[in-house]
Amino acid sequence: MTGLIRNAAIVCPDRVTEPSWCLVQDGRIAALGREGDCSASSFVTETVQKGSAARRDEDYAAPRTERTQASNRRSNDADGPFSTVACDWQVDCEGDWLIPGLIDLHVHGAGGVDTMDARPDSMEKLAATLARLGTTAFLATTMSAPPDAIAAALYSAADYQRHPSSHGAELLGIHMEGPFLATAYKGAQAAAGIYPQGEGAAQQLASLLEAYPGLVRVLTLAVERSDARDLIEICKGQKVIPSVGHSAAEYEVMRQAVAWGLQSVTHAFNAMPAIHHRRPGLLTEALVNPAVHMELIADGVHIHPAVLGVVLGLKPPDKVSIVSDGTRAVGMPNGEYELGGQMTLVRDGVATLPDGTIAGSAFSLLAGVKTLVTTLGYTLPAAVRYASLNPAKLLGVADRLGSIEAGKVANLVRLDRQLTAISVWVKGQAV
């Protein structure tokens, strides 16, 4: 299948190129160029007609419906060679933004379903809902729960990876949030699901990871636990990213955990102590250590925008990823929703437990991008990078995902000037 997206403001990691076109072939970005670039246009024609290999010059792409052939034979079309391109579909973006599909490192659910439902139909609906909202790849995130419940969620996710929907976001793996956490900072995690320190917890983790090799990509743990080093060592052996969260770790403990191999911080500033000038805590080490990656929930609820700005100003630009921490309430109306065995109340996009504790998010990842642009004044390329290329780099998939470049997977999102998703393509297919 071949498709052409035209007249787009293509958002690259460091710039916007407009007006531009993107050629998609067999789910990949085949070529990119500027409107009116005859040499590039000729290459598009040659690529379509002869099936030649794509070259990696510039960076762009996308698709849509209808089979269109020679659809631009208007007398005022100055692009010449485009009038001979044969495409299965063609889209005129009319100057709208074209961004890479977003990648969510931390999302529990959306569209009324949750990873812990442990059902293939739930995972399919989750993937479809996320794609519709602009997230084209994700880590399905679990909660602290009894071993059999977590195992069931992993089994369901592994089954979905083997038989994915062709119209949903790509499931890149699992983010295990818990169950090796600190009860004092459990947040919306159920206390009964948190595993005691020691008592075979490390062996339980090893058994889960060995049963589903390559599925779990991130593990959130409290690094002050007596078994933290063992848990981190197991993660390293299985190529799982250890991330601190739901933790009361002191500054020195956090530094030691980083030396053991800790790589990231889960939803920074939430479910952990605030920075105190005499007790700096784990957040201080995360902020000053350029090697530590940080997740931020940029919905304007979990972290004040001013604090978001401080973190983004301190950290290297590739060491922060924004996440949604979305729950089954994402894309749903106000009401009551279950999260990890507990009831949450959603009002105007804010999800809480009955006692007022923030319980995940009811916002999409795209809403976080919009916060960075409209509230903090970030450029769209910079804001998008925090939700696409940075998470792709953390997961080691930036060779195929995370930016609009020739040769990469054609996961693309068309945004209007209000940053609302108009069209989404996953692997070159409209969803």
Report on the structure:
The chain is an alpha/beta fold. The protein has two domains: 2-99 and 418-430, Urease, subunit C, domain 1, CATH 2.30.40; 102-401, TIM Barrel (Alpha-Beta Barrel). It has helices at 38-50, 120-132, 147-162, 201-211, 228-237, 251-260, 281-288, 305-314, 365-374, 380-385, 389-395; strands spanning 2-12, 15-25, 28-34, 68-69, 86-87, 89-92, 97-100, 102-107, 109-110, 113-114, 135-142, 170-177, 216-221, 241-244, 264-265, 293-297, 320-323, 335-339, 342-347, 350-352, 412-415, 421-426, 429-430. The strands form five sheets. Strands 1, 2, 3, 6, 7, 21, 22 and 23 form an eight-stranded mixed sheet that branches. An eight-stranded parallel sheet has the order 8-11-12-13-14-15-16-17, sandwiched between helices. A hairpin with a 5-residue loop joins strand 21 and strand 22. It starts with a strand and ends with a strand. The model is unreliable at 38-81 (pLDDT under 50). Residues 49-79 are annotated as: Disordered. InterPro entries: Amidohydro-rel, GlcNAc_6-P_deAcase, Metal-dep_hydrolase_composite, Metal_Hydrolase.
The major sheet is characterized as: 8 strands, mixed
**What is the CATH superfamily of the largest domain?**
Metal-dependent hydrolases
Strand content: 25-35%
- Low-pLDDT stretches are 38-81
Text of the CATH class of the largest domain: Alpha Beta
Would you give the CATH topology of the largest domain? TIM Barrel
- The CATH architecture of the largest domain: Alpha-Beta Barrel
Total domain modules: 2
Radius of gyration: 22 Å
